[in-house]
Each structure stands twice: as C-alpha cells, then as structure tokens.
Design goal:
Layout (H helix, E strand, L loop, with lengths): L1 H13 L4 H29 L7 H19 L9 H9 L8 H22 L1 H7 L26 H23 L11 H16 L9 H16 L12
Helix pairs in contact: 2-3, 2-5, 3-8, 4-5, 5-9, 7-8
InterPro entries: Aquaporin-like, Aquaporin_3, MIP, MIP/Aquaporin, MIP_CS
Main location: membrane
Protein name: Aquaporin-3
C-alpha cells in the first residue's frame, strides 16, 4: 500500500503538464529510437565486414525503426521525426509554423545524441575496423555508419535531385495515407504501412546516396562525426570514396 502511494505521488510530481514540453520530449524520444536503430544497422553492416549485417538488414531495420518511432510518440507529437515532414504539415495547415523550428532543433538534437549512443555501443568494433583512423573515404572508412555519402559516380546535381525525388515520394505517400478522404488504412496499422513505404523507397532509390530522406537524420549524426574525430571532411561532397 505504501509503495503504491509513493509511486502515485512520484507520478504526480514528475508529470509534465505543459503540452509543448510533452510534444518535444515525445519527438525527442521517437527520433532517438528511429536513428539509433537505423545507425545501429549501419554499424553492424560496416564495422563487422558485413558478417553481422548487410544492405537488406539495413533497409529492413531502418524501415521498422520508422514504425517503432511512430508507435512510440505518434499520439503525442505526431512523431514527425523528420524536418521535411514537419514542413509539409506546416504547408498543408496541419501544424503551426511557430512550432516548426522547435521541432527541427529537437529532431536534430535527438539524431546527434543517437549517433553518440551508437558510437559508444560499437566503439571497439569501429576502431578495430578502421585500424585506429577515423576516415570519410577509403576501404576502411566509417563515416558512412552515421551519415549518408554518394556513390562513386554521383555528382552534386544528381545527388540533390535524388534526395528531392526520394523525399517527395515519401511525403506524398505519407500525406496520402493520412488523408481521411482517401481509402483509409485500418486503424492502428498506419505505422506499419508507413514502414513499408519507407522500405519500398529504400529498395528503389537507395543506390545513389543511401536514401536518408530526412535532413535531421543526416545532419545530426554528420555533426557528431565532425566533433568526434572524423573532421571537416564529413561536410564535403566526397566522390570516388572507395
């Protein structure tokens, strides 16, 4: 009885009543879950010489991560997890503009700390694989665990178009799924369908630049690699990385 009473008082004391704070924390948590799973898949693929993972596990893992992120916070913040989606919601009048920069900062920060968590989790494997040198290019590069980089022959212009088209398809698909006037997805299964949409885009448009589809997913971890020792090269367009 005493324990129950204590837990009740603790919950009341810790309850966050400010709606914006609740939404920001929810967005932080959902984005963290999304990115830590996504980057963890990349780490297993790269740092273990593709013996513990491959492109299929990376694609499936990152798609399922989207589903988990939506289930984590969809009912509180909407689980945007992506500045591009937040912007689309603003443009369609479904999200207030004043919240947009706040969500972008939260999403980017969550991506940054997710990268840090993956670095800690796979610290030994990353340093073993890289032979003690953190590089962005070359046969033992490890920067692509955290951020996306172009294939050898992809130009800046082609990379830009690649991301515009891929992100555009994602947004059109998600907005269509959320439109109540369309054929509705069975209630509760929306995150599953969005995950399948993400998986289909990765399978069809992932070859050029790795299919980030999410500015926060790319910039937050890229910023982490900059401060963690990979250096300013992470912000340069690297062609012929192999």
């Amino acid at each position: 009885m005493g324990t129950t009473s204590f837990l009740t008082r603790a919950r009341a004391l810790l309850r966050i009543r400010n709606q914006l704070a609740r939404e920001c924390l929810a967005e932080l948590l959902s984005t963290f879950v999304l990115i830590i799973i996504t980057l963890g898949c990349s780490a297993q693929k790269i740092a273990f010489f593709e013996t513990k993972g491959n492109i299929v596990t990376s694609y499936v893992g990152s798609a399922v991560a989207v589903m988990v992120g939506i289930y984590t916070a969809g009912g509180i913040s909407g689980a945007h997890m992506n500045p591009a989606f937040s912007l689309a919601m603003c443009l369609t009048g479904q999200f207030p503009w004043w919240k947009f920069p706040i969500f972008v900062v939260v999403q980017t920060f969550a991506s940054f700390i997710s990268a840090g968590a993956v670095y800690i989790l796979y610290y030994d494997a990353i340093w073993h694989y890289s032979n003690g040198t953190l590089t962005v290019s070359g046969p033992r590069e490890t920067a692509s665990i955290f951020a996306t980089y172009p294939a050898d022959s992809v130009s800046v212009a082609n990379g830009f178009v690649d991301q515009v088209i891929g992100t555009g398809v994602l947004l059109v698909g998600v907005m269509g799924l959320l439109d109540a006037r369309n054929k509705p997805v069975p209630k509760g299964l929306e995150p599953v369908v969005v995950a399948l949409l993400v998986l289909s885009i990765e399978c069809s448009m992932g070859a050029n630049c790795g299919c980030p589809l999410n500015p926060a997913r790319d910039f937050g971890p890229r910023l982490f690699t900059y401060v963690a020792g990979w250096g300013p090269e992470v912000f340069r367009w690297v062609e012929g990385r192999g």
